[in-house]
Design brief:
The complex is a heterodimer of chains A (about 475) and B (about 190).
Chain A (H helix, E strand, L loop, with lengths): L40 E5 H4 L15 H10 L13 E7 L9 H18 L3 E7 L6 H8 L2 H4 L4 E4 L5 E6 L2 E6 L7 E7 L5 H4 L16 H10 L7 H7 L2 H6 E10 L2 E8 L2 H14 L1 H8 L5 E6 L8 E2 L2 E2 H5 L36 E8 L7 H6 L2 E4 L1 H8 L12 E3 L2 H12 L4 E4 L5 E5 H29 L9
Helix pairs in contact in A: 2-3, 11-16
Chain B lengths: L1 E9 L9 H5 L5 E4 L2 E4 L9 H5 L5 E12 L8 H10 L7 E3 L4 E2 H9 L5 H8 L9 H11 L24 H6 L5 H10 L1
Antiparallel strand pairs in B: 1-4, 2-3, 5-6
Helix pairs in contact in B: 3-4, 4-5, 4-6
The chains are: A alpha/beta (about 475), B alpha+beta (about 190).
């Protein structure tokens, strides 16, 4: 159904929040009010904005069975003959997969991989390794919350970037993996195709990125982020992945493909390159259009209200990081982002971006998020309002953003914070990042604007931008989804 | 200026003496006494590593009685020397050295020129590695290497002294991996 009148739009359905030691310590570990419960908020269906964005086989709360079937089917043509009955196998997972739609989809994919491998190879020594971005205790929390130790018969362990390393020889010298990631005869790379940080991966070797991030010691993460540039950095994971050390252990990869609608399918294979191409095509078609639509928003107040750090928090099936850089076409490889991740502090002279955060974001309301990730650029670039004293205490104690508490104010509750942000930001457009897929939580005024502008964004992607994105990566235009 | 308001503290009754915290502390602030971890407050940067690796919940963070302020004034050394060291390391003086503390490369370069000849000393003088501890170590290693100071492998795995930059990629790799913008990204760093 197409909603022509915003008054007919459904109520929003925010994603569930997972309590954590990295979030505000309220009585329940959850916010007292969700942004979706503010007056006048609606759930704007992505399918109505872009009818040709690939449909989901799963969104949060659905029956997991279709996901399980899709995973099993994707594994049918995967060669597992290298895995013998007495082999040891590590399934490699990353923390972010558990932030997507409550985490149970990723859990089900992992569980299905384990069961299929056991069935086909007779191998019983299958272990799980859960890697993390920055929050060192997060893998422990994940393993406990999702019952992964029980699922893996006591063989699920965190893999931290400060754990013992293992040298990996590459054509540019020794890079450092995490020993616990590779302490098996074979590895199975289980990841997601959600767009997340386009400013970093640029859809270049996207499937391999965890080999120099999640699965790497901090030295190699630092080589990736600080020593190489906003496009060339993506060579580092490829060199690690193609190293003799990794290839000797390599079994196959499994990806939870996603669009703003939800999980669209499962891609698996022994060769990552075809999966890489499929995920790129999916991203151009779906996230490309949402990004362009976000670029149509000229002023807004963004409300952060979900699980994880702000940049990775999802609204309308797309992470907040895509709004903070919406005014740049980051699929276009000629564009160089201003990204703190590469140590750049100002744009190169020929680049258009003036601030590290999209100036259309006039104010930020932080209702619920996790600390433990460097994100000072948010508070430096736009007015920030924290909701409640628990959130203020959390920010004050955050060693990764030690100045943030001096760059923001605290409101007693969410309505007060939103009112203040509206006044100081001079905008009545409210957009919410609350973990929802398939629907964007926003107020009626913004919904009206987005409905009106979606055809423009759609046409621009199809006719102007997509051909360039394809050409830059050596795709034939006929391959476009 | 980096202000440290917190420090790590050991909960003695929980400590099992595994030494994991000792091996990951970026500033060698932890040693063992009678099989219990002991933290030197003067060296503690209050980073998350010891707490994060501890399997026994034996380390917490507590407020310092007096906040500790760290900064290396750039004016203490000739600016042309700072710029020369940065150039040799292929780093822009105003590039971020540490994202968490908003420290720029020129301050760390000044620290090196004033005698900080290890990554630990750079951290203790500038306040870097008090946050995530992930990205600033590499920048310190590049400056030290450019200044002619060898970074040695410490006991266990606090740090592996390996660093590669865009400028270390051999020509045959550049030729083999087209589409990664290796030469173009060098220009990005040179220009900005």
């Amino acid at each position: 159904m197409t909603y022509m009148n915003v008054k007919d739009l459904p109520r929003p359905a925010p994603g569930a929040i997972r309590p954590s030691q990295y979030g505000p310590q309220t009585e329940t570990g959850l916010p007292r009010m969700r942004a979706a419960d503010l007056p006048g908020m609606v759930g704007l269906p992505i399918a109505d904005l872009f009818p040709d964005v690939p449909k989901a086989i799963y969104v949060e709360g659905d029956d997991l069975e279709p996901l399980r079937r899709a995973t099993a089917k994707s594994l049918e043509n995967v060669d597992m003959s290298m895995i013998k009955e007495r082999s040891t196998v590590n399934i490699l997972a990353s923390q972010y997969g558990f932030m997507i739609m409550g985490g149970y989809a990723y859990r089900e994919v992992i569980r299905t991989i384990k069961e299929v491998v056991e069935q086909r190879t007779g191998c019983r020594k299958i272990r799980l390794r859960v890697a993390t971005g920055f929050r060192l205790k997060e893998p422990e929390e994940v393993i406990k919350h999702y019952g992964l130790d029980e699922m893996f018969d006591g063989k699920a362990l965190p893999a931290l970037y400060i754990d013992q390393g293992v040298p990996i020889e590459t054509p540019i010298g020794t890079l450092m993996g995490i020993k616990r990631i590779y302490d098996a005869d074979f590895i199975i790379h289980c990841h997601h195709g959600e767009l997340r940080e386009l400013d970093m991966h640029r859809m270049i070797s996207r499937t391999m990125k965890p080999f120099s991030m999640s699965y790497a010691r901090f030295e190699t993460r630092s080589v990736h982020h600080m020593n190489f540039g906003p496009r060339s950095s993506n060579l580092i994971p490829r060199l690690v992945f193609e190293s003799d050390y990794v290839q000797k252990k390599w079994a196959f990869g499994v990806f939870m493909a996603a669009s703003p609608q939800g999980v669209t399918g499962i891609e698996a294979g022994n060769d990552l390159m075809p999966i890489d191409r499929k995920l790129a095509l999916l991203a151009f078609k779906s996230y490309g259009k949402i990004r362009e639509l976000y670029n149509e928003i000229k002023d807004c107040v963004a409300i952060i209200d979900g699980t994880g750090e702000p940049r990775y928090m999802v609204g309308g099936g797309t992470t907040f990081g895509n709004l903070t850089e919406a005014e740049l076409d980051l699929f276009d490889l000629d564009t160089v982002p201003v990204s703190l991740g590469f140590g750049l502090y100002q744009p190169p002279p020929t680049q258009p971006k003036l601030k590290p955060v999209n100036p259309s974001i006039r104010a930020l309301v932080m209702n619920h998020f996790w600390t433990g990730v460097p994100q000072m650029e948010l508070a430096n670039s736009c007015p920030m309002v924290l909701v409640g004293q628990e959130m203020a205490k959390l920010v004050e104690e955050d060693c990764m953003n030690i100045e943030m508490i001096h760059r923001c104010v605290t409101a007693r509750d969410l309505p007060a914070a939103v009112n203040f942000a509206r006044r100081i930001g001079g905008s009545d457009n409210l957009i919410v990042f609350d973990g929802s897929y398939g629907y964007l939580t926003c107020n009626e005024q913004l919904a009206e604007l987005l409905i009106q502008r979606a055809p423009i964004a759609d046409r621009r992607v199809e006719e102007e931008l997509m051909p360039k994105w394809l050409r830059q990566r050596g795709f034939d235009p006929s391959e476009a989804l | 200026m980096v202000t440290l308001n917190y420090k790590a503290a050991v909960i003695d009754k929980n400590c099992t003496g595994c030494k994991k915290c000792v091996w990951v502390c970026p500033t060698e602030a932890i040693h063992m006494e009678k099989n219990i971890a002991v933290i030197n407050d003067d060296l503690c940067m209050s980073c998350p590593n010891c707490h994060g690796i501890c399997p026994d919940d034996a380390i917490t963070r507590v407020p310092r009685a007096q906040p500790k302020e760290l900064q290396v004034p750039i004016d203490d050394v000739p600016i042309e020397d700072v710029h020369a060291l940065c150039r040799k390391a292929n780093l822009h003086p105003k590039q971020w050295h540490c994202l968490c503390t908003a420290t720029r490369v020129h301050e760390a370069a000044a620290a090196v020129l004033k005698g900080a000849i290890t990554p630990e000393k750079i951290a203790l003088e500038t306040g870097t590695r008090s946050g995530c501890t992930v990205y600033c170590a590499m920048m310190s290693m590049r400056l030290l290497e450019a200044a002619g100071h060898e970074v040695k492998q410490p006991e266990k795995w606090r740090l592996y002294p390996t660093t590669q930059t865009l400028w270390d990629v051999p020509q045959e790799v550049i030729d083999k991996y087209a589409g990664y913008f290796l030469e173009e990204d060098k220009d990005v760093f040179r220009k900005f």
